[in-house]
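Exam revision sheet. Question 4 asks you to relate a sequence to its structure. Input first:
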Amino acid sequence: MSALVQRLTRFLRSPQGQQLVDRGRRELAKPETQRKLKQLASRLSSRR
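Answer key, structure tokens:
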């Protein structure tokens, strides 16, 4: 399992990984995305 974590860490530190992280941050900043995530969270919490 530690090998997988090491590979992920290396990828996230690479230029391609940094681009992916930046894209994710931009998407999470959008109000529509935040609304969708809140809806998903409420559906998942109501299942319990």
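Marking note for examiners. The CA atoms of residues 39 and 46 lie 11 Å apart.
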